[in-house]
Amino acid sequence: MGKSPKEQLEIIKKGTLEIITAKDLENKIKKAIKDKKPLRVKLGIDPTSPDIHLGFATVLRKLREFQDLGHTAVLIIGDFTAKIGDPTGKKITRPQLSDEEIKKNMKTYLKQALKILKKDNLEIRYNSEWLKKMNFEKIIKLLSKLTIQQILAREDFENRLKENLPIHLHEIIYPIIQGYDSVMLNADIELGGSDQRFNCLVGRELQTFFNQEKQVVILMPLLLGTDGRKMSKSYGNYVGITESANEMFGKIMSLPDELMEQWFKLCTNLKEKEIKEILNKLHPMQAKKRLAVEIVTLYHSKEKAEKAKEEFEKIFQKKEIPTENVLETIKLVSSLKNKPLIEILKATKIFRSNSELKEYLKNGAIEIDSKKIFLDESFKTSLRDEAILKVGKKRFYKIIFE
Question: Domains, the chain, ranges and CATH?
């Protein structure tokens, strides 16, 4: 912890939406430096899906900043809370996941989180460690710490009550169970997106009942997706941190100009002054390319980012087919060459559903070797052993029949 309290505060505050409270944070940092005792900074993630996108990466990046300042990052994998399902932002009850689904998601979450976090001064915990061991007496004692009025005051539940939508009892206890994680870890700080405000504050409240010092809550703004809505897989407007350099670059280039400032602040390591210079001096297209290069470099490399930039310019500005060695290759059995084209396209498994495939065909958004293909389920074409498949404006694949 070589940096002064002022320097640490400046780094920590960058990009944050709200700190509860800033004074408490300053006092905790000063005490940590004086006592030479790192702060315990908690971030909880429920493994409800297999991948991490840039939206969630913003909170992970803030946790990494604490690591770089010498503090202890405590990453909680909510293998128990995932079974309940966080009701935040939901109008309907989340489907409960099986143990197999949770374990599968946990593996990919950890692998992806470690693309951002350091293994040093990192503590990985699973909340099943303490939640599975709780007997009914302990649960009743814990639930008695908050009132039903406090829980139902949260916006999600309030809206459901107004719309006469069901609220299940296990959803009501979710924030209490999640908040209890802070007690078990004696967390000094909890990080979360702005949508996690209620849950984080419950943890802060519970700590007082267990004679602990209240955790500071640091909330990050929600990163907006490529269409201007909250980044979400259900909207298809996300950029995954494990996507290829080319795919990542292309998605970022589709970002509305007005969102560039937020993405520069939350998704890159550039300082405020440098960001302002880029946005004020460069043409929006050039600024966006710089943004894409910065982000792709973080998750791949500078070399791959520059190559992705070259490929983007080649495809979208010069209207050329991408270099073959950067194309994703799809291998299919040679017997498929004699099948109707729609069967070949289904076999590539790059479409989420048959209806999505048909929608692309209907709109003339599929090309094979630069020839547009339209919807005709019986249509056949003579294909070479290798062919270039273009889907929409941005996706290119090399198909090899073998």
Answer: 5-220 (3.40.50.620), 243-323 (1.10.240.10), 327-401 (3.10.290.10)
Mean pLDDT of 46-69: 87
pLDDT tens digits for 353-401? 777 877 777 777 787 766 767 665 555 555 667 777 777 766 777 777 7
Closest CA to 356 of 375, 381, 335: 375
* Cα distances (Å, whole numbers) of residue 178 to 25, 201, 202, 273, 355: 22, 10, 8, 38, 39
Taking the C-alpha atoms of residue 302 and residue 293, their distance in angstroms, rounded to an integer, is 7
Average pLDDT, the chain: 83
Whether residue 85 contacts residue 171, with contact meaning beta carbons closer than 8 Å, is answered with: yes
Which residues fall within 8 angstroms of residue 300, CB to CB, at 6 or more apart?
Answer: 245, 248, 308
Instruction: Judge contact between 28 and 212, C-beta under 8 A.
Output: no
- Tell me the DSSP string of 315-380: IIIS--PPPGGGSEEEEE-GGGGGS-HHHHHHHT--SSSHHHHHHHHHTT-EEETTEEE---TT--
**Confidence (pTM):** 0.75
Taking each helix axis from N to C terminus, what angle separates 197-209 and 174-185, rounded to the nearest 10 degrees?
Answer: 60
pLDDT at residue 125, rounded to an integer: 92
| Cα dihedral sign, 112-116-120-126 | negative
Question: What is the pLDDT at residue 203?
Answer: 92
245 three-class SS: helix
| Sequence-separated contacts (24+) of 331-335 with Cβ below 8 Å | 331/400, 331/401, 331/402, 332/399, 332/400, 332/401, 332/402, 333/401, 333/402, 334/385, 334/401, 334/402
Exposure of 104 in the CB half-sphere (CA atoms within 13 A): 8
Q: How many residues does the chain have?
A: 402
